[in-house]
Specification:
heterodimer, B: mainly beta
């Protein structure tokens, strides 16, 4: 079965750039989607198909995907960006797969 | 706006069944699928399966095969998820989400607000 690996936590200083990685075997050949989940709330799609932002998501959120690593980048991090972030792919053998999630702390 | 509204919290005993509803609005219900995702307390997201609102075709996660049934009622734009033979480790928040897809790829947007299902004797 296909697996996605995320760091448990990432910290970033206020106003700096945060990078959250999602590792998987040849993940660059798949489309990666990213969700933000704040405490007590439902997940929200922030990036789809590697690098596309849904309407309403700030330009500060961007994504890339190559080789064995996909990356969610949050520029000019704000206190309101503190949340858990999950990557997700669709795999032919296991259907939908989520990463384990990364807790982003803004210092 | 596109919105999914789920039914309220449930408390069930081990061995019982639960049925959670998800009412869609703001889009053509039969043009998209609905997926169900659950999240145990303090844990990550677990995909449970999905249903086509167009023709009712389903695809369930292997782990839940035989215990879960997903259905839709197109007359009310509502999706349902029933989970049987509940165990304590089924305690979780259950989310529905609209499935966006292209070329065999799928992502979820938006999500319902979640329904807490507690399994306890």
């Amino acid at each position: 079965s296909y697996e996605l690996t995320q760091p448990l936590s990432v910290s970033v200083a206020l106003g700096q750039t945060a990078r959250i990685t999602c590792g998987g075997n040849n993940i660059g050949s798949k489309n990666v989607h990213w969700y933000q989940q704040k405490p007590g709330q439902a997940p929200v799609l922030v990036i789809y198909r590697d690098s596309n932002r849904p309407s309403g998501i700030p330009e500060r959120f961007s994504g890339s995907n190559s080789g064995n690593t996909a990356t969610l980048t949050i520029s000019r991090a704000q206190a309101g960006d503190e949340a858990d972030y999950y990557c997700q792919v669709w795999d032919s053998s296991t259907d939908v797969v989520f990463g384990g999630g990364t807790k982003l702390t803004v210092l | 706006q596109v919105q999914l509204v789920q039914s309220g919290a449930e408390v069930k005993k081990p061995g019982a069944s639960v049925k959670v509803s998800c009412k869609a609005s703001g889009y053509t219900f039969t043009s998209y699928g609905i997926s169900w995702v659950r999240q145990a307390p303090g844990q990550g997201l677990e995909w449970m399966g999905w249903i086509s609102a167009y023709n009712g075709n389903t695809n369930y996660a292997q782990k839940l095969q035989g215990r879960v049934t997903m259905t839709t009622d197109t007359s009310t734009s509502t999706a349902y998820m029933e989970l049987r033979s509940l165990r304590s480790d089924d305690t979780a928040v259950y989310y529905c989400a609209r499935v966006d897809s292209s070329g065999g790829d799928s992502w979820f947007d938006p999500w319902g607000q979640g329904t807490l299902v507690t399994v306890s004797s």
